[in-house]
Each structure stands twice: as C-alpha cells, then as structure tokens.
Write a structure and sequence with these properties.
Blueprint lengths: L5 H6 L4 H9 L2 H4 L2 H11 L8
Length: 51
C-alpha cells in the first residue's frame, strides 16, 4: 500500500486523544501521513525511538 493511502487505514483505528488530534487538524495535514505522524508523536511526547 502506498504511503499516501496509510492515513485512510489509520484513521479508522484512532480513538480518544489521537482521534481528537486528528479531527482538529486542517484537512491538508490530516491526510498527509508524515505530518499526522509528527503531530501525534508530539502530542504524546514521543519520538520515533521511544519516550
């Protein structure tokens, strides 16, 4: 599956705080996987390597 389709699969799995973050993003950012990933990691205080 191409990266640009990952958000479509991911959005169905989001719940709680992650869903709230996703729903508040402008559509251009919400459907850009790398931007969404960055915002979610930032929200939870994580890096790609862990806490």
């Amino acid at each position: 599956m191409p990266v640009d389709e990952w958000v479509v699969s991911l959005e169905t799995l989001l719940a709680g705080k992650a869903l709230d973050v996703y729903s508040r993003l402008p559509q251009a950012k919400a459907y850009d996987y790398n931007k969404l990933k960055s915002v979610l990691l930032q929200r939870y205080g994580l890096t790609e390597n862990g806490f």
